[in-house]
Amino acid sequence: MRGGGVSVGVGVVVMVVVLAALLPTARPLPDVITIGGLFDEGDEEQKSAFRYAVDHVNRENILGRTKFNTYIEMIPPYDSFLASKKVCQLVGSGVAAIFGPQSGQTSAHVQSICDALEIPHIETRWDYRLRRDDYSVNLYPHPSSLSKAYLDLVRLFEWTSFCILYEDNDGLVRLQELLKTPSPHEFKVSIRQLPQGNNYRELLKEVRSSGEQNIILDCHTEKVGAVLKQAQQIDMMSSYHNYIITSMDLHLIEMEDFKYSGSNITGLRLIDPAREEVVALVETWTEGRVMATNRLSDGDPVLEQRDLSFWTTETALMYDAVKLFVLAMQALDNSTTVTISKLRCEGEEAWVHGNSLINYMKLVRLVGYTGLIQFDSDGFRTDFTMDIIQLGPNNLTKVGTWSRKTGTNYTRTQKETMKDVIQGLHNKTLIVSFAFNDPYIMLKESAAQLTGNERYEGFCIDLLNHIAGILKFKYTLVPVPGNDYGSRNKTTNKWNGMLQELIEKRAEMAITDLTINYEREEAVDFTMPFMNLGISILFKKPQKMAPSLFSFLSPLSLEVWMYMITAYLGVSILLYILARFTPYEWQNPHPCDPEPDTLENQFTILNCLWFAIGSLLQQGSELLPQAVSTRIVAGMWWFFTLIMISSYTANLAAFLTVERMESPIENAEDLANQDKIKYGSLATGTTFAFFRDSSLPTYVRMWNFMKDAKPSVFVKSNKDGVKKVQESKGKYAYLMESTSIEYIIERHCDLTQIGGLLDSKSYGIALRNRSPYTSAISSAILALQETSSIELLKRKWWSDRKGGKRCLTNKEEAGGSSMASELNLSNVGGVFVVLMGGMGLALVVAIGEFLLECWDISRDDQIPLMGVLSNELRFIFKCRGSSKPVRKKASESEVASTGNNIYGSDVYNYSSKNTFT
Ligand code: ASP
């Protein structure tokens, strides 16, 4: 849209609350209405803007045939006398309103004359006063709203401290909300005034040495570039530095040099250059400006420059002010007959319409080039929207909006921020502090003289190379003095080691086996963990046990041995009893004599014991059972001995081939419960802090032991700890992180890990507090984890490099030893059960055999069964003698009449079945 076709309408929304449009006007407006303009000498921009804005509304014919004429006077910025004179000249010629000037001193005079003559005074300048005169409106946002916006920005960025660099007292008014500090603990504020002249370096150096990285810069737009340039010269424009610049005209500053500095430069603006109306206006303005100043000819480069680079906020406000005035005039015209009077400064007379016109102005709502224009009941422009802009590789970009009602609305996504951070990292060289610890970072062994980063190698170096490859940054490795990881001194509250390097800004990153813990996390930033671990105990490998004299007993547990002895005695006794019960074990002692007088039982108690032990030792005996019952006993016992002896033999082989290890401690509890073996940890690290801060009774006891130990049990490095364990010959245990233990025991076969993990934690890369790179590096670590690159690196440095897997065979041996364990009842209990079952069966069979025999006798001899039973049982339970007289039939027995036999009155005759073998 160009020339006359341009609609300056700007999508104007006019909402005149009292619109008396229907009222007929008695007399039309004068054909020409003059508007006065007072501008500071040299302020051509404002003058042109005013003139061009008036031209524009004339072309738009908002008031029909009535046109506006400008009466412009230029005055020196500080000459109030001349300003008053000029105002009088203007009002004397009959003006409907006076615009300007921009200078605060002259403006006050103009305002007081306008007040007296009731002529509307329209301003577009920064004015800190909290009260305004009746006949004045100012389109510049009210200081209270602006300072609220800056407070909201500080809260958005979660600054906990910042430094205000201000040029003059206006700045302090602009930032009053920040100085009032709503909550005294919300943030720490320091305030410094920029010195006169052009050299701000000393002041900036002071800010730098105070460690402050968040700066609010309040100075004239022309000075901003110089301050930033000098800040850059003294290294205060790094990625860690954040600036909020209060100038609303950041687009006027040459920012090319700071675009890639990485520092976060934020500002607010009223004009959104992307809005269609603004684009159109800028285009026509370029031409109109040319016409108005009549200084440029076609083809002049300025004509081609259709951007905002010469458009101040005040210029845009001037446009909106003219528009506002015209709309109010229209409303006034609709409500009354407007006449313009020529007034005298010295006279009593005032303009009759001045009051109505200013009231209409305060009622109008319009969307101008500087956003929504409306006034609160006090006539202040408090409700408006501003863009939050940030400097990035693509220059100033809008990252959100602010309005009094909704506060900040930050529309920048995490991804976009990250993209900028990554871009900012490209080709940057970061200082990386590190502590030596195998295999994380070690000195490279090489015949050639190495320099720079080449001197170091290890897991962390490879990891860093991967990350640097992804994010395309460079780094310089700097070993930390003293090789300390970093712990806080509880009394001085000071950190040491790598953490100190980060806090004191000597390094940007710290890497090694650096554990993430709460205390450290409060002082610095940590990336996502790259390895998980826990504290464990490094100790001398258990000593080989000297073979014991009675090691042959080891294959079976004591319990099993006891059960076996019981089984042996039980089976022997049972065999003895059953043999006496069963008639088939009473044999003819002289087989050649078909009619013996006595029968013999081979299973005396001694023979039973002998038979059982003979079987148990797999040697046998001459004794062989004859009856089914005793054979069942023997069979079951042989089965039992077969299983037991085979198990014993097998386990004995394992016991004899494996050397048994013996360790005096099995876990942390064992360590805590003794004082012969000393134990300690690294002197400055999280292991040390873990015991110091733990409240678990075992660890508290361990901590008390360690801290009181003389000489100290703490060591300077893990290497020293390992050496101490090796040299102490089992008198020192080192509390160390499990991943490092893993590495050590693969190489030092005399060492081992004792027990499990005492805690669970992770290693991460530390960065300065609130470092912009934390998320980017975390993402790179996640990406490496997903592709298993970190796992591969671990394998490379733990197993494949520098003597890894050396102790694997030893380990396997050690694993073998644990397999040779004694057999206990749970392993062989079943065999005992089978044996007991067999014995029960044998008992039943023996009783059967016994009853059958008694039944036979009772039937053959016609003796009552009970009598036979009692006689037989009496004989059996006498348990005396292993011979028994042969039973004769009562008729055959003479002895029977005498009743003189061992059974008493009864005489028995044993059938032939007793005599066969
Ligand atoms: N990795 C530990 C640290 O970061 C060192 C240790 O305490 O073993 O402090």
Note down, in words, how this protein is organized.
- It is a single chain.
- The longest helix is centred in the C-terminal third of the chain and has 36 residues.
- Strand 13 and strand 14 form a beta hairpin.
- The protein has an 8-stranded mixed beta sheet. It has a 5-stranded parallel beta sheet with strand order 2-1-3-4-5, with helices on both faces. The protein has a 5-stranded mixed beta sheet with strand order 19-16-20-32-21, with helices on both faces.
- It is of the alpha/beta class.
- It is elongated.
- Helix content is 42%, strand content 15%.
- The protein has 5 domains: 214 residues, Response regulator (Rossmann fold), CATH 3.40.50; 152 residues, Rossmann fold (3-Layer(aba) Sandwich); 137 residues, Periplasmic binding protein-like II (D-Maltodextrin-Binding Protein, domain 2), CATH 3.40.190.10; 197 residues, no CATH class; 98 residues, D-Maltodextrin-Binding Protein, domain 2, CATH 3.40.190.
- The chain contains 30 helices and 33 strands.
- The structure holds aspartic acid.
- Aspartic acid binds next to helix 21.
- Belongs to the glutamate-gated ion channel (TC 1.A.10.1) family.
- This is Glutamate receptor 1.
- One of its GO terms (molecular function) is glutamate-gated receptor activity.
- It is found in: Postsynaptic cell membrane.
- One of its GO terms (cellular component) is postsynaptic membrane.
